[in-house]
Design goal:
The complex is a heterodimer. Chain A folds into two domains: 39 residues; 166 residues, Thrombin, subunit H. In chain A, 36% of the residues lie in helices and 26% in strands. Chain A has five helices and twelve strands. In chain A, the strands form two sheets. Chain A has a six-stranded antiparallel beta barrel. A six-stranded antiparallel β-barrel of chain A has the order 6-7-8-11-10-9. Chain B is mainly alpha-helical. Chain B contains six helices and no strands. Classes of the chains: A alpha+beta, B mainly alpha. The interface between A and B is medium-sized, with 34 and 36 residues.
Chain lengths: 292, 169
């Protein structure tokens, strides 16, 4: 018997290895089989192997894909950087164009509001705002374009200054804040008269001849009165600041914050003609009696 | 011991296969690298070691594929026996025949599993002939990759081969 078993042991083993699994399969095929402890142990054993192999394989694949991806990354990065720079430049250009369009639109709107005046648009091509000397800006329009001395220069925000000297194609404008500049103004709220004189620096001016008996407060808007024969009436000049009312004297002491920041200007309007006669008429008789 | 080593290699290969299929194709095709292992066992191992290792491989396959217990164990031992029969009749050497046998082995495993599952499953859930093209693709992919496995499996064998003293020593 044992000899027979020994003789056919391989055949018996193979047969057992065939039949037992088949029997197990048919026994368990129709019902969900649960994992035994041995199964769980083997799975527990296989999990780290699978994970390690998985990590290795996926790591290698990722490294490979990363390498392949990085092979052209430098070129792509340079190309994209160039493109980004171009786009940034285009964006800056577009923003500048938009800002310019906005400024021009405001200038146009301002010029259309006052039909009795004739304006000439000009670009600022030079700035001379040094502490010594005159506070000047240079326009790209001159005598050839019809610009003359003493013509007022304004923007939508207010007074810039007046034409100081003219050459054929350019003109120098003495800005409001120059020490030699003086503009007759009114307080818009109370119609009180005064004078604004420059201090020689672009961000401040001095209020002169404002009677202390007048109603005036800090922040009051000052507009041109038109009585100086240079500026048309009603153009903003600035706002009252640091108002002081001394115990003695006839006038207020105050600073004026200019309505226009001349350091940021790019385009201006030269008022080439306006109806002076009508504007210097008393308010009650003038055509603009209803508007200040 | 050698059989255990082959089972461990089968475990590792199951992990490699799962990872490969995760990253390559994403499940569009499948592989049966363990079929190539069983074919190699049938070609190079003896009846005892080979059949035990094949049963162990089938057991691993049952566990990792979630098949009913015994299905792949039986099929792997059957495949081992078939390969033994083929190798007894035909001299199988080289990578080409090994690849061919591995592909056929993969087909035998999948077709066998299909038939047995059809036999035991309810009709509405039984796998059908629609799966046959995938099985053919799996067999082809396995055949293509099998030659790469052969050196690895040989190396495992070499770990347990003792040098014979020889007659002249």
């Amino acid at each position: 018997m044992f000899a027979l078993l020994r003789r056919y042991r391989e055949l018996i083993l193979v047969s057992v290895l065939l039949l037992v699994p088949l029997g197990v399969f048919f026994a368990n095929a129709r019902r969900p089989s649960e994992r035994t402890r041995l199964d769980r142990a083997v799975v527990w054993l296989t999990t780290p192997i699978e994970r390690a192999v998985g990590w290795t394989v996926t790591g290698a694949l990722q490294a490979w894909s990363g390498y392949v991806g990085l092979r052209h990354a430098q070129e792509r990065a340079v190309e994209m950087s160039r493109e980004v720079n171009l786009l940034r430049m285009e964006k800056q250009q577009l923003l500048a164009d938009r800002a310019e369009a906005e400024r021009l639109r405001r200038l146009l709107s301002f010029s259309e509001q006052s039909s009795d005046r004739t304006y000439l648009g000009a670009r600022i091509i030079g700035v001379k705002l040094g502490p010594t000397g005159l506070q000047l800006v240079t326009l790209d329009r001159g005598a050839v374009d019809g610009v003359d001395r003493m013509m007022p220069v304004v923007v939508a925000d207010g007074v810039v200054g007046r034409v100081h000297s003219v050459s054929g194609r350019t003109a120098d404008v003495l800005v409001l804040t120059d020490r030699n500049s003086s503009v007759a103004v009114r307080v818009e709220r109370t119609r009180a008269r005064a004078n604004v004189r420059g201090l020689g620096k672009p961000d401040a001016a001095h209020l002169e001849y404002a009677l202390r008996s007048e109603d005036m407060i800090e922040g009051d808007l000052l507009v041109t009165s038109g009585t100086d024969g240079v500026f048309p009436r009603g153009v903003p000049v600035g706002r009252v600041k640091d108002l002081q009312k001394h115990a003695h004297g006839l006038f207020y002491e105050a600073r004026v914050t200019p309505a226009v920041d001349v350091t940021r200007l790019e385009e201006v309007l030269v008022v080439t003609a306006w109806e002076r006669a009508a504007e210097i008429m008393p308010a009650a008789l003038g055509p603009g009696a209803s508007t200040p | 011991m050698k059989a255990l080593a082959h089972v461990l290699v089968a475990l590792a290969l199951a992990g490699v296969q799962a990872s490969l299929l995760r990253w390559v194709g994403g499940g569009w095709f499948s592989l049966s690298l363990l079929a190539a292992c069983v074919v190699y066992l049938g070609l190079s191992e003896g009846n005892v070691d080979g059949s035990v290792a094949a049963a162990g491989t089938g057991y691993v396959l049952d566990l990792v594929t979630g098949s009913p217990k015994g299905l792949h164990t039986f099929l792997c031992v059957l495949l081992f026996v078939l390969v033994r029969a083929v190798s007894a009749a035909v001299d199988v050497r080289g990578r080409g025949p090994f690849a061919l046998l591995s592909g056929l082995g993969a087909l035998v495993l999948s077709l066998g599993a299909l038939l047995l599952a059809r036999f035991t499953s309810a009709p509405e859930v039984a796998p059908g002939a629609l799966l046959v093209p995938r099985m053919l693709l799996e067999a082809a992919a396995t055949a293509a990759l099998a030659p790469l496995l052969q050196p690895l499996l040989r190396r495992v064998d070499l770990l347990f081969d003792r040098e014979e003293p020889g007659l002249l020593r």
